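Quick sanity check, 3-oxo-5-alpha-steroid 4-dehydrogenase 1:
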Amino acid sequence: MSIELFHQILIGFSAVGLIVFIALFFVKAGYGMFRTAQWGFSIPNKIGWLLMEAPVFFVMLILWLQSDRSVLSVPFLFFLLFELHYFQRSFVFPFLMKGKSRMPVAIMLMGVVFNLLNGYIQGEWLFFLAPEELYSSAYLCRINCWIGIIVFFLGMGINWHSDYVIRHLRQPGDTRHYLPQKGLYHWVTSGNYFGELLEWTGFAVATASPAAWVFVWWTFANLAPRAYAIRQKYREEFGVEAVGKRKCLIPYIF
């Protein structure tokens, strides 16, 4: 693929993200607390998450194996960061879930399509299109590399802890909704989403990859409307005072 075509794909992908961002303020993605029968046939959440997230893990692995840069330390480092996230998301996170929630197949398939495309553009840049001199060993001395890695792991820690808080809100057999209070939930109503957004922002800072910044935009476009809807639902269920001054997604900002 030429670099010109690659940039055109990124522009088109970003434009679709804008459409998704706007649409999700009017149509709530039908999984989790917003799942309804209107979304059609559904499968157990564990299976849905596994099938939705695993493809990107293998896409990145295949691209890395096919690349002449697979033995270079910097691309390999970024490969490990990316794969760490998706290994946990594909093969650990689903099996930590409690309850019998279900995911519509339509949502799962949309997630698969996005993950395949996103995994491809991330790997295409890191292993094939980035200037050869960019990811030399000297890149490890750049301040953005280490700031980005620190932010990546900070976001990952927030995301994992927030998921832990959510998983332990209910006792076995309980299906009621609860307002999470611990960790980042002191400041936002979607602490897990904030962690994921921070994680991929760190990845983009570390890699200086245009594809990674498109991923940050898509992460925000997908999660911000849902975080807003979750906050509104919490305000309806638990009251405005209970939610308080907590923001939707980004502490003190949004």
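Posting the structure with no commentary besides this: The beta strands are 42-44, 102-104.
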